[in-house]
Design goal:
By secondary structure, the protein is an alpha/beta fold. 26% of the residues lie in helices and 21% in strands. Strand 3 (47-49) and strand 4 (52-59) form a beta hairpin. This is Glycosyltransferase family 2 protein.
Length: 299
């Protein structure tokens, strides 16, 4: 019998986490393990909802106080595999699970284990006064997957080795493929870059990517800034790391918008802060220049 674990990482977002818990407990197939990785958040504790227990593992902040998103996901997957999981689903804390999400991921990872599988994600409008549907089946009436990613219909599979389309909002993987992948690069700390890096790493190591239409998730609304100015330093640091590993900068749309706002400038093929030359990552003594990781292809 296939054992399925669902892993989420969280810092704050307690109401969204509780709503995700309910959606998993009431879905078509309940996961055998539900695990939250609490990033510097002691208020996230073990709980049970409708018979589904949410276990918790904790991790502290990363270097310079950033949230260790990549390391937290790795910890969550390894902890889930330690429970004997055959399929691990990673679901962003803001995402509600559609009624068929767990079952669809379980089926595709079991039958086609040599790929990393993602599912379509709908961004929900602001929560209505009566709340989002309590029954995951009711979420289908809101279904409108994000247009920037593939949108296979329920029942459809799409094998598409496009690493720059990978995102960590919702995906699933089996143990052997995860170990071959090696997980997320933990040099990424804070916001941005680690998703695309993982997609590139997968392709470099001969691991395919795919999209499964039945694994639909629904992203709960919350205020956002566009571009995400509050994450500017993370984006610059992680973008430079990505460049070191892959020879190009990610997140160029945001960086160009930061440039239009006078927050960053291009210098010698890189992006640096406009207003703080002491934090220029070109400077060799700056801690942002200490990241030096490489990805090698494996047979």
């Amino acid at each position: 019998m296939t054992r399925v674990a669902v892993v989420t990482i969280a810092h704050g977002r307690h109401e969204h986490l509780a709503a995700q818990h309910r959606s998993l407990a009431r879905g078509g197939l309940r996961p055998d393990t539900y695990l939250a990785v609490a990033m510097d958040d002691p208020d996230i504790v073990k709980e049970q909802v409708d018979g589904l227990v949410r276990d918790v593992v904790a991790i502290g902040r990363g270097p310079r106080g950033g949230l260790p998103l990549a390391a937290a996901r790795n910890l969550g997957v390894e902890s889930a595999l330690d429970t004997g999981a055959d399929v691990v689903v990673l679901l962003d804390v803001d995402c509600l699970a559609g009624a068929g999400l767990v079952a669809s991921y379980a089926n595709v990872v079991t039958s086609r284990p040599h790929r990393i599988w993602s599912g379509p994600v709908t961004y929900l409008p602001p929560r209505p006064s009566e709340g989002y549907p309590a029954d995951p089946a009711g979420l289908a009436e809101w279904d409108d997957p994000h247009p920037a990613r593939p949108r296979p219909a329920p029942g459809e599979l799409l094998e598409l080795d496009e690493p720059d389309l990978f995102w960590s909002l919702s995906f699933a993987v089996g143990p052997r493929t995860w170990h071959r992948l090696g997980g997320f690069c933990e040099d990424y700390v804070g916001y941005g870059g680690e998703d695309t890096d993982l997609g590139r790493t997968a392709i470099a190591r001969g691991i395919g990517l795919g999209w499964v239409g039945g694994a639909r998730a629904y992203h709960q609304h919350h205020p956002v800034s566009s571009p995400p100015v509050e994450h500017l330093d993370d984006i610059l640091r992680n973008g430079r790391l990505f460049h070191q590993r892959w020879g190009e900068w990610p997140m160029t749309g945001w960086l160009e918008e930061f440039e239009r706002r006078g927050l960053v400038r291009r210098e010698d093929g890189h992006w640096v802060r406009e207003d703080d030359p002491e934090n220029d990552p070109e400077r060799p003594e700056n801690p942002r220049a200490t990241f030096a990781s490489t990805v090698k292809e494996t047979p």
